[in-house]
Fold Cullin-1.
Amino acid sequence: MLLIDWLIDCTFAKLGQSLTLLFKQKIITPQEYMKVYTIIYDYCASPCDCGSRATGYCTCSKDGKTSRPALLYKEINRQVLTYLAEVVKELSVMTGEELVTGYYELWHDFQFCAKAIHGMCLYLNENWLATKRLTDEAEHDTIYMVCLKNWKQQVHAPLEAQLTWAVLETIAADRNGSFVSTQTVDAVRKTVDGLVDLDSKLTYLVGDPPGPEMPDERVRTLSEVYKSTIHTPFLADSLRHYTAKIIKERISPNQALDRYILQVYVLLTAEELRCTKYLHESTRDPLMQLLVDLLIFNPKATLFPTTARDKAQLGGDPKTFVTAIWEAFDRNQKILEGVRQHQRFFSTTLDKVFWTTLNTNAVPKQAGTVVISPAELIARYCDALLKKGTTPVTGGALEASLSRVGKILRYLEDREAFQKHHRLLLSKRLLFGLSWGPEYEYSLLQKIKVWCSAGYDAKLQAMLQDVVASREVSELFAADYARDHALGYDFSVQALRDGAWPLTKPSPLNIPIELERPLIAFREYYQTKYSRKITWNFPYSRCEISTNCFSSNYILQGSAYHAAILMCYETGDDFTVDAILTILGCEQGPLTAPLLRLLRLGILLAVNATGQSVPDQLIISNTTAIKLNLAFKSSKQRINLNAPLRR
C-alpha cells in the first residue's frame, strides 16, 4: 500500500507542476502534452495491488470513491479551483470596460487550458467516466465540462451583475451617440461569445489525435448563461430605453405615415446593426420583435386612426364600420411596403394590431342598449352589398368590396357568429327575391369559404341550388295548373330541402280556402312527380292582399298569418282572440307578432266587453275582442305588414 501511495503522490506532483505551468504560460508544447497524457494513462491503466486494473470495478474500491481514477478526477478539480480563486481575485478589482476586457482575456486563456487538460485526460474521459455513467445513478461530467462548471460557479456567478452592467453601459453609450472604441466593441463581442461557450460541449472527432487544438461542437442556440447575463437584461433595458424615447420624442404612427415609417425603419436598422456588433445572433430576432411590438402595438400609438374608430361607432352602420376597418388594414399594408427589410417582424405585429382592432370594436346599436358584434356588422355589410333596394354596386367595385370581406374575415375571431348571421341574411335575400343574383352570391362564397368551417360552403351552395331548382319547379307547375284552373292571382312556390336552410320549425295554420286550393294542387303535383313529402313553412310566405272595405283601396303586403287573420273578417266584423286561434288552428305564439302589427297600424282594433280600446300588450287575453277598423286610413297605397315592431 505504501508503494501505491508513493505512486499516487508522484503522479499528482508531476500533474500539479504541469497544470501550474499550463495555467501560468497559457501554452503547452507537444512534448509536454504527451508527457502528461502518458502519466495519466499509465496511472489509470496500471494494475491495482488486488491484481485488477484500477477502474470503477476494482475490488479494493467497490464504491469507486477511493479508486485511482476517482482520486485523479478530484485532484484535477482541486487544481482548477485553486487557479480560479486567483482569477476571481484579479477580476474583482476591475470595473466597466476594464472588467469586460479582463474577463474575456482570462476566459479565453482558461478555455484553452480546459481543452488541453481535457485532451490529456482522454483515457480518463473515455474509459473510467464511461464506466461510471453505466454503473452509477449520479451523472459524471467530462474534465472539460468540470472546468466550465467551475468557471460558472467560482468566477462568473460572483461577477455576473458587474459584467451585465458593464456590457449594458457600453451599448447604452453607443445608443446615445457616444464614441465607443473598436477595442471595447471587440472586447464586448468576445465576452458575449465566451458566455455562449460556457454552455457548449466539447466533442472529439473519431480518428483525430488528442490535442488542445481539437475542433469543438458548440451549441449556438440561446445559452442559459448568456440569457441570464446579457440577453434578458438587455431586452428589458431596451424596452425601458425606447418607451422613454417614444414619450420624449413623441414617436407615434398618428403623425404622417411616411415620416413614421422612416423613423421606425432607421431605428430598427440601427438596432439590428448594434445587435450584430455587440451581441449573439440569438438576441436579434427577439429584439426586433420587441421593438416592433412597442412601436406598432403600443396602446398610446395605435395604427387604427382615431377618426376611423369614431366613425365606426356612429350608429353601428356596417358600411362605415367595414370602411374604417379597411382603412386600418390598408395602413398596415403601406407600413409593410415601407419596411421590406424587417417585414417578418412587422407582419406578425401588424396582424396582431389588426386582429385587436377588428375584434375589440363592438358597436352599440343605440345608447344604453346591446352592442352589434364585428361578426354581425361584417355580415350586414355583405347583405347591403348583395341586397336589392340599396344602391347597386356592380363590376370591379363589387368584386373589390367582396375581396375586402374575404381579407378581413381572416382576422375575425368569432367566425361562427359571422357564419350564423351571413347564412340567415342570405336565406332572407333568396327566399324573398332580394338578392342581385346567384352569381354575386357565389362570388362572395368563393372569397370567404377558406376562412369558414368545413362544410359551410356546401350549405350555402345547397341553398343557392334550391332557389334555381325551385324557380324551375314553380314555372312548370304554373304552366300545368293554368291550363285547367284560373286562380285570379299570381302564385309561386319555393321547394327547399329540409335542413339546408336556417328556418324555424313550421307551425300549423288553417289556410283560408281561397289560398288553400293552389297549395293542395302543388302538393299533389310535387309528390306525384318527385315522390317527396311537403311541409309548408308559413312564417316565410309572402302575400299581397287587396282591400275594398276601407274608404280607399290598399294593398297589404304580409305573410300567410296576416292574410289568414284578415280573411277571418270576410264572415264577421269582430272576433275574440280565442275565436281567431280556433279558426286558424294555430298556437298563440306565432300569431302574436302579426296580430300586434295589424293593431298598431290601426287596421284592427282591440276592445273589451264594454267596447273600450285595450292596449295592444293586453290582447293576449282570450276574451279580448278584435274588430276590423272600417275607418282605417293611410297615406300609403302599399302597406308593408312585415316591418319589425317598434315601441
